[in-house]
Amino acid sequence: MQELLESVVLMLSPIVPHICHRLWHALGHARAAVDEHWPVADDTALEADSLEIVVQVNGKVRGRISVAASAPEEAIKAAALADDNVATTHGRKTRPARDRRARQAGQYCRVGA
């Protein structure tokens, strides 16, 4: 919690310097907030372990599946076709198509005839 508060105060210090100066000293620091380094993002915290993918059939949302971020495309297709709503909506003639831009964003997997 302390690290979170310190990061917020440092990021707000250019906008409201006087308030952040007081808050910085209240958090127990002797130096001024403007003399500190800008917080650095932890890249490992930004990586997702799993993705929730929306499955669409003919442009309509038919289900949501959750897969591992490193799952191969075949596993994503199998999970999409295993969804009951997808299977009953379009029968077993469905063929998942990969939308490259959406797959990179980790959001959509379309299923079409």
Summarize the structure.
The protein is of the alpha+beta class and 113 residues long. Helix content is 39%, strand content 22%. Helix 1 packs antiparallel against helix 2 (17-26).
Oligomer category:
single chain
| Biggest beta-sheet profile | 4 strands, mixed
Per CATH, which architecture of the largest domain?
Roll
What low-confidence regions span 5 or more consecutive residues with pLDDT below 50?
103-108
Shape: elongated
Task: Determine the number of helices (DSSP H or I, runs of at least 4 residues).
Answer: 5
SSE order, one letter for each helix or strand: HHEEHHEHE
- CATH fold-level label of the largest domain: Ubiquitin-like (UB roll)
Strand order of the largest sheet: 2-1-4-3
